[in-house]
Each structure stands twice: as structure tokens, then as C-alpha cells.
């Protein structure tokens, strides 16, 4: 990301780019191609080696295995070890990308995201003409796994940043922490950091033939116990290397560590990749204490559910009664034919060519409360829809040439009443055009908010007729 990178715009690749390599666990050689995608596409994997070339979305709800990496599966379509490529895409600011594969697993390369960052830079990152909608976490979200002693927390923040702490009770690793203060630092500070495992884990995986593509050059192997000559000889045969040895600081002969806390930094890389499966770009400070793929994905699901439950709050219009209205009551009466007691809009506070926001203050003195649930007054749902329709009428009439017009209902779809409206409530009436107005026909999506909660929503169709 250069200084001209706009984080509030969506981005894709300028061109397609490919890389080939072996899958760590399957040992299958795979060709992977990253392709540009349109705004809103997100990250999707396509298995071009399977009949029908099925596509699977990068979605935490589709994760079926986290034992040795993160695996996505839908039906018979499976893609393994997706975290490193997803981390590279997020870290380079890419929002939309089709990832084509002719095999079941992402190439492991050197065990980091650096090779993927290199090909993304080779392809180039392209700004798209579409806004990037960030979801700000406005409350603490915590996930705790007592069995694994893992704790993950998302704190409100103005940016997306991550702090990772690891403590595996290992004299070699000790206690480590790593921080990613800005995604702009991902390329230099996090991407080069390789995956790691302990020697005893490696032996178990080898015995069960679970790392068919393993090599001493695509992972850091931590030796946390004395190693017998027999073990060293067996490892030499498995990796087809003559001079396997334990170098200083308890690491199997491998490249020198790229950072003193490379394992903690790689855990940060995994968090970036796994949380990409939320499906929404977030602003939060993630604190991950002893994270792993299983808890990362569980945490991603928890954040996704929170966003889905609360994302309507992001669209709630802000009503400041101190500001002058765009349309006063007197101006509304000049536009609409409705009058007391059937005028359901008190003022308009926002108006563009595509949406409008009106206000209706509900009082106990409304005529309909006399006969509608006396003693327990509730505003009739049909009158809430009428208030939306009148607000939408102003939006439609405002877009037409000067003159006097009437609006008539043609259709109401998908109408839902989610919360009752009672005296003392202030209804915020939002209407948005679904499609351009043609021949006087208006299709609009309407929402009634009370505070930051949705009371009513419906899709309305009306016809505007000149008097």
C-alpha cells in the first residue's frame, strides 16, 4: 500500500497472476491463479479441476476443518490451507479476487505469505469505483476457549490492528508477542513470517502421513526435547536431506529466523487470514492470546453474527432536532394533498435524488389511539407504512418537473413489523429508490427506525400522477 492508497475504496487486481507449488498436507502440486473481480465479489475459490468448476466463498460458516490449517468445504468442493493467501490479499488491500486452483490445497511455498505478496505486487492493485463499507466494532466482543486456554477480544478502534501473544510453555519459544498497528505494515512486518511446529508434532504428522508436502524449508521446526540419533536419521530419510541437525536455540536446521519473534508474527498472519472469513472489513483492535485456527474461526463466526445482527445500525439516519429541516410542515403540505389527521410526516431532514428521510413524532393525542388498543396504545402498522409512503411520495415528486401530483400505491412487498411504535416515539422514516423512476412508477425500500432499532420495513411501489 503506497501513500495514495485509499482505504475507503474497494480494490482488486489489475491483471491475473499465477503461482505453482506443493500443498503442505496433501503433497499435491497445484497451480493457483489470482484474477480480478468486480466490486462486492469478495474472495472466492474456484476448483477448475472438478466437474462444473465449482466456486466456494471465503466464509467462516463454510469451514469444516481447522486441525492443520483452515479448510473450506461446500458439498464435495474442498479447499485447504486458505489462511496464508487470504492474509496476503487483506494485507495488500485487495477486497475482490477470484482464486482459481487445479487442486485441493493452496501451495505452501515457504510457509509464509511473502510469495503471495510478491505476485500481488506483480499483478498490481487497482482501485475500484465503489466505496468500501467498514464495520466498526462498537463494543467489546470476547471469545474464550477454556480447554485450549485461548482468549480473543475485539475492542473498539479507529483502525484494524492486531496484538498477538503466544506462550506454549516452551523453553525455546518462551513468551512472545507481536503487533500489527496498521495493515500498511503487513508486507514488511508480518508477510515474511513462516509457519512453525514442534518436533513432536512433526513426528506425529509424519507417522500418519499428514504432511506429504512437508520440507525443512517451508516451516520452522522447534526442537523442545533431546533428539536421539535415530530420530535425526529418520528425519533425514523423510526429508531426503543428509545433514539434518539441531542448530542453536533449539530449531531444526532451517533458514535463520527472519525476526526474533517470528512465531508470534506468524500467528498474527494466521489471525489476519482467518478473520478474512468474516466477510466484512472491520475496524477493531484484535487481541489474540494463544490463538489457533480453530479459535480464530470460532471468533470470526462470533464477529460475523454480531455484524449481521447490528449492521442495520450503520444505516440509521442521525436525527438532530436542532438542525433546520429540508422540508418544513408547511412545505410538505404544499407538496402532498394530505391533511390532519392523515398527514403522517412532520418534516424532512434529508433529501437526495435517491433517498429521503422524514420524521414523525408520535403523540398520545393521535386520533387513531382512541380506538386502537385503548389503555395500551400501539400505532397501527398500516399507518406506519402510510407514513413511509407519504415520505416516499415527496422523494418522487421532488424528482419530477414542477407541478401538482398525487401518488397512488401499486404494491407492497416484504412488509415486516419488528417492533411496536407507541406514544412518545420518534419515527425516522427512510425511503430509498430501488431503481430509477420510469413513467411515473417508483420502486422504493422503506424503513421505520425508532432510535437505532428497526420497527418496520417494506418494499413499496407507487405511481405518480399529475393532477
Automatic annotation (TrEMBL):
<feature type="active site" description="Proton donor">
    <location>
        <position position="293"/>
    </location>
</feature>
<keyword id="KW-0479">Metal-binding</keyword>
<dbReference type="GO" id="GO:0046872">
    <property type="term" value="F:metal ion binding"/>
</dbReference>
<dbReference type="GO" id="GO:0005737">
    <property type="term" value="C:cytoplasm"/>
</dbReference>
<comment type="function">
    <text>Catalyzes the hydrolysis of UDP-3-O-myristoyl-N-acetylglucosamine to form UDP-3-O-myristoylglucosamine and acetate, the committed step in lipid A biosynthesis.</text>
</comment>
<keyword id="KW-0441">Lipid A biosynthesis</keyword>
<feature type="binding site">
    <location>
        <position position="270"/>
    </location>
    <ligand>
        <name>Zn(2+)</name>
    </ligand>
</feature>
<comment type="similarity">
    <text>Belongs to the thioester dehydratase family. FabZ subfamily.</text>
</comment>
<dbReference type="InterPro" id="IPR015870">
    <property type="entry name" value="UDP-acyl_N-AcGlcN_deAcase_N"/>
</dbReference>
<keyword id="KW-0443">Lipid metabolism</keyword>
<keyword id="KW-0456">Lyase</keyword>
<dbReference type="InterPro" id="IPR010084">
    <property type="entry name" value="FabZ"/>
</dbReference>
<keyword id="KW-0963">Cytoplasm</keyword>
<dbReference type="InterPro" id="IPR011334">
    <property type="entry name" value="UDP-acyl_GlcNac_deAcase_C"/>
</dbReference>
<feature type="binding site">
    <location>
        <position position="84"/>
    </location>
    <ligand>
        <name>Zn(2+)</name>
    </ligand>
</feature>
<feature type="active site">
    <location>
        <position position="372"/>
    </location>
</feature>
<comment type="similarity">
    <text>In the N-terminal section; belongs to the LpxC family.</text>
</comment>
<dbReference type="Pfam" id="PF03331">
    <property type="entry name" value="LpxC"/>
</dbReference>
<comment type="pathway">
    <text>Glycolipid biosynthesis; lipid IV(A) biosynthesis; lipid IV(A) from (3R)-3-hydroxytetradecanoyl-[acyl-carrier-protein] and UDP-N-acetyl-alpha-D-glucosamine: step 2/6.</text>
</comment>
<dbReference type="GO" id="GO:0103117">
    <property type="term" value="F:UDP-3-O-acyl-N-acetylglucosamine deacetylase activity"/>
</dbReference>
<dbReference type="InterPro" id="IPR029069">
    <property type="entry name" value="HotDog_dom_sf"/>
</dbReference>
<feature type="binding site">
    <location>
        <position position="266"/>
    </location>
    <ligand>
        <name>Zn(2+)</name>
    </ligand>
</feature>
<dbReference type="InterPro" id="IPR004463">
    <property type="entry name" value="UDP-acyl_GlcNac_deAcase"/>
</dbReference>
<dbReference type="GO" id="GO:0019171">
    <property type="term" value="F:(3R)-hydroxyacyl-[acyl-carrier-protein] dehydratase activity"/>
</dbReference>
<protein>
    <recommendedName>
        <fullName>Multifunctional fusion protein</fullName>
        <ecNumber>4.2.1.59</ecNumber>
        <ecNumber>3.5.1.108</ecNumber>
    </recommendedName>
</protein>
<dbReference type="GO" id="GO:0009245">
    <property type="term" value="P:lipid A biosynthetic process"/>
</dbReference>
<dbReference type="InterPro" id="IPR020568">
    <property type="entry name" value="Ribosomal_Su5_D2-typ_SF"/>
</dbReference>
<comment type="function">
    <text>Involved in unsaturated fatty acids biosynthesis. Catalyzes the dehydration of short chain beta-hydroxyacyl-ACPs and long chain saturated and unsaturated beta-hydroxyacyl-ACPs.</text>
</comment>
<dbReference type="GO" id="GO:0016020">
    <property type="term" value="C:membrane"/>
</dbReference>
<dbReference type="GO" id="GO:0006633">
    <property type="term" value="P:fatty acid biosynthetic process"/>
</dbReference>
<keyword id="KW-0378">Hydrolase</keyword>
<dbReference type="InterPro" id="IPR013114">
    <property type="entry name" value="FabA_FabZ"/>
</dbReference>
<dbReference type="Pfam" id="PF07977">
    <property type="entry name" value="FabA"/>
</dbReference>
<keyword id="KW-0444">Lipid biosynthesis</keyword>
<keyword id="KW-0862">Zinc</keyword>
